[in-house]
Amino acid sequence: MDEIKIGLVGLGTVGSSVLKMVTENSDKVQNITGRNLSIKTVVVKNVAKHQNEVPAGVTVTDDIDKIINDPEIKIVVEVMGGVHPAKEVITALLNAKKHVVTANKDLIASAGEDLATIAKQNHCDLMYEASVAGGIPILRTIVTSFAADYITEVKGIVNGTTNFILTQMQRNHWSYDQALMKAQELGFAESDPTNDVEGIDAAYKMVILSQFSYGTHIKLSNMSVEGISTIQQEDVQQADAFGYTIKLLGISRRIDDGVFTEVGPVLVPQDHPLATINNENNAVMVTGEAVGETLFYGPGAGGLPTANSVLSDIVSVTKNIVLGTTGNGFNNYQSKVGKVDPNNVIYPYYLSLKMLDAPGQMLQFTQIMTQIGASFSQIVQTKNDDQTARVVIITHEMSKKQLNDLKSHLSKINTMSLLAAYKVL
Ligand SMILES: NC(=O)C1=CN([C@@H]2O[C@H](COP(=O)(O)OP(=O)(O)OC[C@H]3O[C@@H](n4cnc5c(N)ncnc54)[C@H](OP(=O)(O)O)[C@@H]3O)[C@@H](O)[C@H]2O)C=CC1
Ligand SMILES: N[C@@H](CC=O)C(=O)O
Ligand code: NA
Prior knowledge:
Helices cover about 35% and strands about 25% of the residues.
């Protein structure tokens, strides 16, 4: 049987699981593709650390040229992460006519279009199913199964680390730091978890999902991105008492002629499917005009689930090699969309305020709300300390403009401050 040799760049959480799956699941892959796939060379930073982690016959090196210049290697898996030097490495691999499979959302969200062009010029495949929602087969599903439908919204939980942290904070009353440490230990978090907890990793994934859903590139700089690092345990518990679970959601929807995409903590009603997604699991809801609402659920992080998506790309590339159909692009949908007026982006909000515990304070707050044309649906006041009260409110629908007006009014009053403002689904 013909052989296809694979190069692997990175042997961490995902890389070691890719090596395991290529080695242990080769019979099924052979059966489907008619090719014998094996990993020939692995590139890492620290060769000594990994020397004993590979089967006999596999070379471990820190020299990427050993893959770039090896004519026997046809497919390369990039799982080292980060934009640089991953971008330069993938560019060199494509120019050397290697097909590339990557899990790197940072890179695809920021340079995916350029890399796709280079791939096409070289008649090579560039696939990245693992870059969004780890083990959930969502990108290929949008390309193939929503090919004709007009997608109006794509939203969901697309970061495993933050969902794990929020689950532990809500269910087990863990501290934020304790939960983050465990997520790192389990291999869900990025090597620097800042992008996870600040919502940037989820934003990268929303950029890619929007590209696939609407055919348009949303710039990260045009998105509102908020993470979970400032969420307080008391807000998690208060949301729960109101009947909501706080989730970090990415939401991308058509509004007017445009697409509005954002990431932030959202109060999700406890009977909504997204409220039931726990730990490192992710869920993506895709709404199409024809099909209506659909939900895709599964592990969003972790070695083997992510490796399964990498393997699905490897198998797709292999089939293309066999059929001579490489270089046709992972996603070919391109379309122009207009701008969205933030006044038309409306949600109810959860507002947490600290105010002086004195007569007239609530009246003053109510006057501001009346002035900006907003109103409450639920309100709870508790003691914060000797002098101040904590007032938590769920508003009726209001626009981003009204929220900004509220913030600006509050910034001028030194007896009240807004501690948190989260959307309510
Ligand atoms: N972990 C997860 O659950 C998921 C991760 N991803 C993505 O997959 C990719 C890999 O993630 P993960 O496996 O967790 O990362 P790890 O940090 O566990 O592993 C990274 C690997 O890449 C190697 N590496 C890093 N920089 C270089 C370099 N400059 N040259 C050569 N090798 C290098 C490291 O080598 P050494 O060990 O010698 O330091 C290590 O083996 C990232 O893009 C991540 O965003 C996607 C979905 C899920
Ligand atoms: N750090 C990421 C890994 C998968 O993309 C996450 O936690 O979701
Ligand atoms: Na995926």
